[in-house]
Amino acid sequence: MTVTVMSAGLLTTVQDLGRPGHAHLGVPRSGALDQPAHRLANRLVGNPATAATLETTVLGCAVRVDRAVTVAVAGAPCAVRVDGRPAAWAAPVRLPAGALLEVGAATRGVRSYVAFAGGIAAAPVLGSRSTDLLSGLGPAPLAPGDALPLGEPVGPAAGADVVPAPAPPDPLLLPVLFGPRDDWFTARSLAVLTGSGYRVSPTSNRIGLRLDGPPLERAREGELPSEGMVLGAVQVPPDGRPVVFLADHPTTGGYPVIGVVPAAALPAVAQAAPGTPVRFTPVGRR
Amino acid sequence: MRVLRVGLDALLVELDDADETMAFHAELQRRRAASQLPPVTEVVPAERTVLLDGVADPEALAAELADWHVPPLRATSDETVTIPVRYDGADVAEVAALWGVAEEEVARIHSATEFRVAFSGFAPGFGYLTGLPERYRVPRRAVPRPAVPTGAIALAGRYTGAYPRSSPGGWQLIGHTDAVLWDPSRERAALFSPGTRVRFVIEEA
């Protein structure tokens, strides 16, 4: 069973729950940025959460299937069409053999997730099928003409009584635990981070949420030896503008981390479009 | 040793120097293998720190770490990875000048050194190897190369590294190897994982 890519939109990648446990070898964790949406799409077609879905970015994608298969689209709301006719969003949809599935541009948010019963069966690398944009592991970002294998469906497609469709974050509220290197910054900078307005930069990607806004000042000069980085780390490069590390972040880095955004707040980051106001809320010091 | 909290479920353990860091990492690995460490998702050694990520009870582990006695890193009979190298890198002459030796001495000095992988990063399978004496430290190139060839053996600061795949890079190139440094389909994806001992041997052209 094969899915053929007709259009890949702006950026469409294969994602699952990622490849944690290899950071010491320089391997990012990767995986779906909006994990609740990835899990929901899988659940709607009867897949386990570990099955690989397609993660689209802003413009959706279009694919053709060579056999009948059940699909579901979740995450950023968008128009779903099967052979040109409107179909349900966030619900199981049966595609006949040869059908064209069009996942439209996001009407709100950024990233939609397309699950196929059986999951995308690209070859796993270190236990994961995720595309890792930083280190090039996993399937390359999709391009027209690519053919992806599908796995065997394992369970019946599950319905859902209520499908939450969170509004896009506006503003994006990010709790931040200061540390481990907040002492590298002036007290004023800590106040600037949490007190002033930032906006999501259009240069944001799966590696990091980059922010436009006032630069943060260092309290000390010099270089920090490279050290291990966690998901959600708010790293401050020399230009002083914070970057929130997302799934494809490097596993070690040399710039100080002023604080960490807990993982529970990161799915909303996946749906924050460029220009979205961002507000950091201090929730303590670690 | 200083233990810093990182977010909700990680600890950053800061050590006094690189040797102490490698010793602490070796002790972590020993205790982890012996099931004497609570489950952690990631153990990431770096230059002067070890990150422990995905810790169920970081407060309890932080308290426990403070009481650890960490023996110094022993010159043990750990497995040694041997890497054949042709010392024909583009910067051999420059490195020889920085070291104040003849060009052919670069290969002799480098291949006579016993290295250990201190940590990884930068790219999958890229290891930072320590072992060269202090006097052989070299600066990075003023202008990084847009593409360093796969298998390039390079120097920067107190480290030797080998590029698992072509990438931009500012290190001084002294040679290359045909050894496959990174293959995720292999049981041991990275030849250079933290703690591994490495010997480079001269391969004649």
From TrEMBL, chain A:
Protein name: Biotin-dependent carboxyltransferase family protein
Top-level taxonomy: Bacteria, Bacillati, Actinomycetota, Actinomycetes, Kitasatosporales
Gene3D superfamilies given in the database record: Cyclophilin-like
Record InterPro entries: CT_A_B, Cyclophilin-like_dom_sf, PxpC
Keyword Nucleotide-binding: yes
Pfam families: CT_A_B
Segments forming domain Carboxyltransferase: 24-286
Keywords noted in UniProt: ATP-binding, Hydrolase, Nucleotide-binding
Automatic annotation (TrEMBL), chain B:
Molecular function GO terms recorded: hydrolase activity
Keyword Lipid metabolism: no
Keyword annotations from UniProtKB, A to Z: ATP-binding, Hydrolase, Nucleotide-binding
Organism phylogeny: Bacteria, Bacillati, Actinomycetota, Actinomycetes, Kitasatosporales
Stretches assigned to the Carboxyltransferase domain: 1-192
Superkingdom classification of source: Bacteria
PANTHER family xref list: 5-OXOPROLINASE SUBUNIT B (PTHR34698)
UniProt-recorded name of the protein: Allophanate hydrolase subunit 1
